């Protein structure tokens, strides 16, 4: 017998339906043709993994901030280099007017 595979989206929809508590889990199981024990596993897994969603979000924000700060630092370094080059060119050309 071939084992059924369910998409993460489908599992999420079912778990959300369970969490709404509008219907008993046994009714949800029979409506979708899934054993109630499987629904318990999905719900448990979801509740255990839920904090990681926010943790990953914080990691993504920290990485974006670090990338941004690195770009700003590189831009300041480039501005400093160009300013020095411009001063040198002005000095060599005799149009240095500071």
UniProtKB/TrEMBL annotation:
InterPro entries: Homeodomain-like_sf (IPR009057), Transposase_8 (IPR002514), WH-like_DNA-bd_sf (IPR036388). Residues 58-85 form a coiled coil. Keywords: Coiled coil. GO terms for biological process: DNA transposition. It comes from the Bacteria. GO terms for molecular function: DNA binding; transposase activity. This is Transposase. It comes from Natribacillus halophilus.
């Amino acid at each position: 017998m071939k084992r059924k595979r369910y998409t993460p989206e489908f599992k999420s929809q079912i778990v959300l339906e369970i969490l709404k508590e509008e219907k008993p889990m046994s009714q949800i199981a029979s409506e979708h043709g899934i054993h109630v024990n499987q629904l318990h596993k999905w719900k448990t897994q979801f509740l255990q993994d839920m904090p990681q969603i926010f943790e990953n979000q914080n990691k993504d924000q920290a990485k974006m901030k670090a990338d941004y700060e690195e770009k700003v630092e590189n831009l300041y370094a480039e501005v400093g280099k160009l300013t020095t080059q411009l001063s040198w060119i002005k000095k060599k050309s005799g149009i240095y007017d500071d």
